[in-house]
Amino acid sequence: MYLSFQTAAAFLMFVGASSIPLNMNLIQVSDSCCGATFFDAATSAVISRASAVSNFNALSVRILCIFITMFFFSFFAKAESLPVGAAAPMVAAVNQQGDRVVFADIYAQGLTLIYFYPKADTPGCTAEACSLRDSFENLKAKGLQIIGVSRDDVAAQKNFHSKYNLPFTLIADTDRVVSKAFGVPLVMGIYAARQSFLVKDGRIVWKSVKAETRGSAQEIQKAIDSLN
């Protein structure tokens, strides 16, 4: 119970309290503090109490604090993705081959799916990509182009692309130019959230802020049908 109090105190200080008394020296955390400062504060508070209660494993506490911090940033993220009706971002980025892709040129070719996924070659992202791959010909017949986007680098995207024989382009958005332009928030402060957008005539005509994985193709098919 006391351990939970110490952790909660560190959280309260992070969001604005100037100081909270602990059984240790007061820890001051300003409103402008970074995640690393918060991490150190939370870790120090937890380890201080834990060491007084039992022979606690400090490394385990630090790992726990990492997850607490990542959850904290994810939970309080206020980013809002672009709404339906907004102009589609005219950005450019590199694909799995390292070639530059100009999104305006893609939009000009017709209906386009821009889907964001957290990390290449992970279970959920693989299921989503393979769902779109398996229905690619049917979706292509509807005039759809598909662009997948994540923060993975070119090498990781190339491996993901070839490993699963994906018939569409993957974007290596390492600098977050694309995800920022679409307003896609980060998960745990690291990965792009799983969101999908349909672009038609230069505007976003549909979006899903909690995109499907295994049912991705069916979700997109239903969205396309709703546009007609």
How would you sum up this structure in a few lines?
The protein has helices at about 1-15, 35-55, 60-75, 105, 125-135, 135-140, 155-165, 175-180, 215-225; strands spanning about 90-95, 100, 110-115, 145-150, 170, 185, 190, 195-200, 205-210. By secondary structure, it is an alpha/beta fold.
Strand content: 15-25%
Helices and strands, in order, run as: HHHEEHEHHEHEHEEEEH
Query: Mean of residue pLDDT?
Result: 78
Give the structural class. Answer: alpha/beta
Helix content: 40-55%
**Biggest sheet layout:** 5 strands, mixed
CA-based gyration radius: 22 Å
Supply the CATH class of the largest domain: Alpha Beta
CATH topology of the largest domain: Glutaredoxin
Number of strands: 9
CATH homologous superfamily of the largest domain? Glutaredoxin
Structural features, described:
- With 228 residues, this protein is of the alpha/beta class.
- It folds into two domains: 2-75, no CATH class; 92-227, Glutaredoxin (3-Layer(aba) Sandwich), CATH 3.40.30.10.
- The protein has helices at residues 2-14, 35-53, 58-75, 103-107, 123-134, 136-141, 154-163, 177-182, 216-227; strands spanning 92-94, 100-102, 112-116, 145-150, 169-172, 186-187, 191-192, 195-200, 203-208.
- Strand 6 and strand 7 form a beta hairpin.
- Helix 1 (2-14) runs antiparallel to helix 2 (35-53) and helix 2 crosses helix 3 (58-75).
- The radius of gyration is 22 Å and the shape is globular.
- The relative contact order is 0.14.
Secondary structure layout:
Elements: H1 2-14, H2 35-53, H3 58-75, E1 92-94, E2 100-102, H4 103-107, E3 112-116, H5 123-134, H6 136-141, E4 145-150, H7 154-163, E5 169-172, H8 177-182, E6 186-187, E7 191-192, E8 195-200, E9 203-208, H9 216-227
Parallel strand pairs: 3-4, 4-5
Antiparallel strand pairs: 1-2, 3-8, 6-7, 8-9
Helix pairs in contact: 1-2, 2-3
